[in-house]
Amino acid sequence: MSFLVKISVSACIIGLVTILAKYSPKYGGIVAALPLVSLLSLFWLYIQGEQSNNLSQFLFGVLYGLPSTIILVFIVAVALKYSTPFSISIILGISGWGLCLFLQKFLLSNMYS
Predict the structure, then answer these.
(1) Please, what is the Cα angle at 60 between 10 and 32, to 5 degrees?
(2) What's the pLDDT tens digit per position in 75-113?
(3) Residue 29 CB partners (closer than 8 Å, separation 6+)
């Protein structure tokens, strides 16, 4: 499938979510919380003919990244709630995300070694 088709369809979906969020932040957030990127990626990988094993590994990778993503969203939401500037909120969230990934890797490597 053409790279431009993937970009166009994906961009349209993201654009629709942002329009929804503009009119209804609550419902925009609920739709944005859906695993849209994961499902779109899975769909494009399937269309490209990826093996089921690769699709499964991809989804386990998504699960691996989920806790740190939750930490990022939580930190940014709390920071913004307390009027922290947007850029600082994002930096704090990304820092928490990175720290969570590091700790997760450290804990899991010690668990299985």
Answers:
(1) 35
(2) 999 999 999 999 999 999 999 999 999 998 888 887 765
(3) 21
